[in-house]
Write a structure and sequence with these properties.
By secondary structure, the protein is α/β, with parallel strands linked by helices. One of its GO terms (biological process) is cell division. Keywords: Cell cycle, Cell division, Cell membrane, Membrane, Transmembrane, Transmembrane helix.
Length: 241
């Protein structure tokens, strides 16, 4: 009986060992088939491209620049390269490209928005929050302030335009009443921003720093009769008759 039980246990152990080996082979084969299907077959290949978020850009324009490889396995599509190509469009602020399984590449765009407009080389150009003159207009766009940026160096001009756009955005968001009084903005550097108000008044704003504090100081200051209000140093504001 002892020999028979030993023999039976040995056979059972061999069967379990064979089962484990067979199961391992099946798992490896399944993983290999799955990897082949995802990375090399046409089962999960690109068939569609979805573009969202565009307002002025045409879908055909985005698709032409994106150059999404139709028929390539979705897992092997270089989404970073697509993002880089689409972000090269003048009107694109940000872009995010992703995979929507099983067959779709999604391109989500946020277009630039004009904050102010300025005359650049004889053209009316919209300037976005980053100071980039990204589009042209046939005539001054309604609802936007004219900006005069008296800076020749390209890098300094970009920084100045960005600071100016930041100030205009802040005023529009925090103090709509003041925004209605602003007729135009000027800057000769990123630290020399001025607001031209109604009734011939001027606000010397200075840099973009301490914007919230400058608004707090300017509100009561504007109640005083003056032609020039200086809040560039908000803790020491001054007025000029």
């Amino acid at each position: 009986m002892t020999a028979e039980r030993f023999s039976e246990r040995s056979r059972a152990e061999r069967r379990r060992r064979y089962f484990r080996v067979a199961l391992g082979v099946l798992v490896v084969a399944a993983l290999g088939a799955l990897a082949w299907m995802v990375w090399f077959s046409s089962v999960l290949a690109v068939r569609d491209v979805e573009v969202s978020g565009r307002t002025t850009l045409k879908q055909a324009q985005v698709l032409r620049v994106a150059q999404v490889p139709q028929g390539r396995p979705l897992a092997r599509v270089d989404v970073g390269a697509i993002e880089q190509r689409v972000s090269g469009l003048d009107r694109v602020d940000t872009v995010e490209v992703g995979r929507s399984w099983p067959h779709t590449i999604s391109i989500s765009i946020v277009e630039r928005k004009s904050v102010v407009w300025a005359r650049v080389d004889g053209q009316i150009r919209g300037i976005d929050r980053n100071g980039i003159a990204f589009r042209s207009y046939g005539s001054p766009p309604k609802g936007l302030l004219e900006a005069t940026i008296d800076v020749t160096d390209a890098r300094d001009r970009l920084q100045t335009a960005e600071s100016l756009a930041s100030v205009v955005t802040l005023i529009g968001r925090k103090d709509p009443g003041l925004r209605e009084q602003v007729e135009s903005v000027t800057a000769s550097s990123k630290d020399s921003i001025e607001l031209k108000l109604t009734k011939g008044r001027t606000v010397v704003w200075g840099s973009r720093d301490d914007g919230g504090r400058k608004l707090q100081v300017l509100t009561p200051l504007l109640r005083l009769e003056a032609s020039r209000y200086d809040v560039s140093a908000p803790d020491q504001p001054t007025t000029t008759p």
